[in-house]
Amino acid sequence: MVVLDEADRMYDLGFIKDIRWLFRRMPPANQRLNMLFSATLSYRVRELAFEQMNNAEYIEVEPEQKTGHRIKEELFYPSNEEKMRLLQTLIEEEWPDRAIIFANTKHRCEEIWGHLAADGHRVGLLTGDVAQKKRLRILDEFTRGDLDILVATDVAARGLHIPAVTHVFNYDLPDDCEDYVHRIGRTGRAGASGHSISLACEEYALNLPAIETYIGHSIPVSKYNPDALMTDLPKPLRLTRPRTGNGPRRTGAPRNRRRSG
């Protein structure tokens, strides 16, 4: 079997002579299984396939969109003072089955974790400070449904594949446009729908134009009633030792909706 990945890049990087040299020292094309992958099927890539493959079957995948069409995107403009209360109100309204909340720093993640844990949510914390063994345990708890919410930084969440994530909250708009796509791509997978909610506060709203340019569309804006935000919130917990989550299993129905039309 021969697998050639990034065939177009082999041309761009000048490796095609080496590739052909290797092919000449392999069994004939009709005596091996050949698989060729390429982001683009240019003439020269097709020529290589014709040279090295017998009766090749071409399989084309639709071009990848920057954001999945099954993901509902939503944007709010909270003040810094109302941001945490808006997040907690949205969580109570949406009542997500499985949600990931992204923030730009580990300290902000710890702050979010403290507020949600104090409010009784089953929430896990994933930052760069989390050891690999504990990281795997938290992910296992989240995947099994023992945790409803995961608060994470981009670095800590890099490369994670978690099924059935229903909601992604961008508590902070990311500084890197690609991180926005990676974040919301955690939901809406495998044919399922997903919901992405972003909070553009004064601190990170300046990142929005670059993000919208990168994804090729404006994120729909929703409004909220500041007077309807949750106020009966307990004092946040402080992270004093390694934790995987806190709070009892959620029961009952979500609270009344507090968003304006």
Mean pLDDT equals 84
Distance between the termini: 59 Å
Oligomer: single chain
Q: What's the order of the H and E elements? A: EHHEHEHEHEHEHEHEH
Please tell me the CATH architecture of the largest domain by its name: 3-Layer(aba) Sandwich
Q: Using the alpha-carbon principal axes, give the shape.
A: elongated
Give me the Rg, rounded: 23 Å
Percentage of β-strand residues:
5-15%
State the share of residues found in helices, binned by percent.
Answer: 25-40%
CATH homologous superfamily grouping of the largest domain: P-loop containing nucleotide triphosphate hydrolases
Number of helices: 9
Structural class computed from helices and strand pairing: alpha/beta
What is the count of distinct domains? Answer: 2
As for the CATH topology of the largest domain, it is Rossmann fold
Spans where pLDDT lies below 50 across 5 or more residues: none
Task: Note the main sheet.
Answer: 6 strands, parallel
The CATH class of the largest domain: Alpha Beta
Strand element count: 8
Sheet with most strands: strand arrangement: 3-8-7-4-6-5
Domain Helicase ATP-binding: 1-59
Keywords: ATP-binding, Helicase, Hydrolase, Nucleotide-binding
Pfam family, one: DEAD
Family: Belongs to the DEAD box helicase family.
